Automatic annotation (TrEMBL):
The gene is LOC115427533. It comes from the Eukaryota. One of its GO terms (molecular function) is peptidase activity. It catalyses: N(4)-(beta-N-acetyl-D-glucosaminyl)-L-asparagine + H2O = N-acetyl-beta-D-glucosaminylamine + L-aspartate + H(+). Keywords: Autocatalytic cleavage, Hydrolase, Protease, Signal. Residues 1-19 form the signal peptide. Cleaves the GlcNAc-Asn bond which joins oligosaccharides to the peptide of asparagine-linked glycoproteins. It comes from Sphaeramia orbicularis (orbiculate cardinalfish). The keyword ATP-binding does not apply. This is N(4)-(Beta-N-acetylglucosaminyl)-L-asparaginase.
Length: 338
């Protein structure tokens, strides 16, 4: 009797056999990050602890070279970090952009949330704040990032994110000067997953507390000072314990113009299921930039989740990680792209 009651109840509640709480979900197959977040929840940590620990694991492991130190050198060869964390109960956010010389960007983002009344700190000042809060300042350059940088210099600084300047940025290095007339806008893509693999992570516990976070070292060869979508509230991630959470990855310069994470959460609030919310957020961007590369993960407060993507370079699917009580371990999931 008893096992049947339990099993039948579970089957009735979760007909797809996939939704349960707590839930951790993150972009890309960053399994160790999922495990770190899951362990944090299992050992009594909050959803904020889970998101921070999960993203921090990627910063330490330099996930795909696009999170943490030693990746994505900018035009001057320096690695800089963007990160954010959001508390879906209080709607508090901590974020850092263009953070230099500090490895644990998501930790600094959480410190911004907990030790200031601000939402976002950037650049050298963010680094100084971090040092004052006890984070260690160290060089984020590695042999690998130096090598990526010197290859770029040798290859006439290609790819290059400048436009409407001379000398011609598709062939020459700078310094650049503005052209007198602007050319018609062309969507320039640099199809390389390894310059876009931000970790975005959502965590929801048994009591319905929701948190979201991101961490990235941005775009390889970016113009110094460039901050992407990851630390922007509603773009890189969004969390609201009354509705759910979402996090995005991809062409951040394009995606941040549409606040896809905010849009997805609002759609779930209005009753959309997570997959539909994710798809609609991607479609909204596609209307204007059909060739953009991006993906988004969504979860609602009952632990149902979904994902959607557009044009993942070299792949027809987007892969992400999920851990919940059903799996009790990180599971690799994938979704077909538009
Ligand atoms: C980095 O390069 C330096 C000098 O080229 C070399 O001595 C060092 O062993 C390298 N470090 C790693 C981790 O490969
Ligand atoms: C979450 O989404 C699932 C799937 O659409 C739905 O059955 C469930 O009611 C949603 N939960 C909430 C709280 O809206």
């Amino acid at each position: 009797m008893f096992p049947c009651v339990v099993i039948c109840t579970i089957t009735l509640l979760f007909p797809l056999g996939r939704a349960s709480l707590p839930l951790v979900i993150n972009t890309w197959p960053f399994k160790d990050a999922t495990a770190a977040a899951w362990d944090a929840l299992q050992s009594g940590g909050s959803v904020l602890d889970a998101v921070e620990k999960g993203c921090a694991r990627c910063e330490t492991e330099q996930c795909d070279g696009s999170v943490g130190y030693g990746g994505s050198p900018d035009e001057t060869g320096e690695t800089t970090l963007d990160a954010m964390i959001m508390n879906g109960d209080t709607m508090e956010v901590g974020a850092v952009g263009d953070l230099k010389r500090i490895k644990n960007a998501v930790g600094v983002a959480r410190a911004v949330m907990e030790y200031t009344s601000h939402t976002m700190l950037v650049g050298e000042s963010a680094s100084l704040f971090a040092e004052n809060m006890g984070f260690i300042a160290e060089d984020l350059t590695t042999n690998k990032s130096m090598n990526i940088f010197s290859q770029w210099l040798k290859g006439n600084c290609q790819p290059n994110y400048r436009k409407n300047v001379f000398p011609d940025p598709s062939q020459y290095c700078g310094p650049y000067k503005p052209r007198a007339t602007l050319q018609p806008n062309k969507m320039r893509r640099h199809a390389n997953t390894h310059s876009h693999d931000t970790i975005g992570m959502l965590a929801i516990d048994q009591d319905g507390h929701v948190a979201a976070g991101t961490s990235t070292n941005g775009l390889t060869h970016k113009v110094p000072g460039r901050v992407g979508d990851s630390p922007i509230v509603g773009a890189g991630a969004y969390a609201d314990s009354e509705a759910g959470a979402a996090a995005a990855t991809g062409d951040g310069d394009v995606m941040m113009r549409f606040l896809p994470s905010y849009l997805a959460v609002e759609l779930m609030r209005a009753g959309a299921d997570p997959s539909t919310a994710c798809k609609t957020a991607i479609s909204r961007i596609k209307r204007h930039y059909s060739e953009f590369f991006g993906a988004i993960i969504c979860a609602n407060t009952t632990g149902h989740y979904g994902a959607a993507c557009n044009k993942v370079p070299g792949l027809s699917q987007f892969r992400f990680m999920v851990a919940n009580t059903e799996s009790d371990a990180p599971l690799l999931k994938s979704v077909d792209c538009f």
